[in-house]
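2024-03-11 09:14:02 DEBUG pipeline.ingest accepted 1 chain
2024-03-11 09:14:02 DEBUG pipeline.ingest length=204
2024-03-11 09:14:03 DEBUG pipeline.predict start
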Amino acid sequence: MFKATLRSHLSVFLSAPVSSVLLDSECLSQGEMRVSCSSEGGDSPQYSWTLDGHTLTDAQLLSGNNETNNITLKQDVLGLLVCSVRNHVSNVSKEEKISTCGFIFINCTLPDGTNISQWVFSANNTLCVDPTTTLTMIVITDTMASNVDNSLLVSVLRAVVALSLLGGIAIYFAWKKKKYNKAETSTTQRIKVHPENSFEMVEL
């Protein structure tokens, strides 16, 4: 008589969680930005990227993809970049505010008919600066918030002008009233001392 023996095998896989995420960005020669995302700890990490809350697209990437830890962004990409690293036991992310690397896009036609259309470093730009050329410049920086400041400044200036105008009107009417009262007082005094309205008693 044979007795069957049943054996079971239990495999246990241990994964270390991701402890932290580091972002490292670098401007390239033509204004592109290379960004590296690295994680400390963690087994089999998987990467993903978002920009301002939206998944990075191929149109924003010069190289790499949304699942690699090294990407290169095109010159006009800016905003809040987030790298997320996850594995079976953890999910950690790191964010960084990125802007263009001081580059501008110029598009102009020179007097000789030459068309220039390229990204250049703003501080060293010597192209498309002739006032006789037809020039279109697109400047993209991380100071777009200054538009809000300009709107606030315009509002303050308008308020100052309005208050100055109201103050001027009030001063004008106060001056008119004072002038009117002065004229009325002067007229009253002339009536009191006018010879035709005075008399003298003579004893006969």
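2024-03-11 09:14:41 DEBUG pipeline.report The first strand starts at residue 18 and ends at 27.
2024-03-11 09:14:41 DEBUG pipeline.predict end
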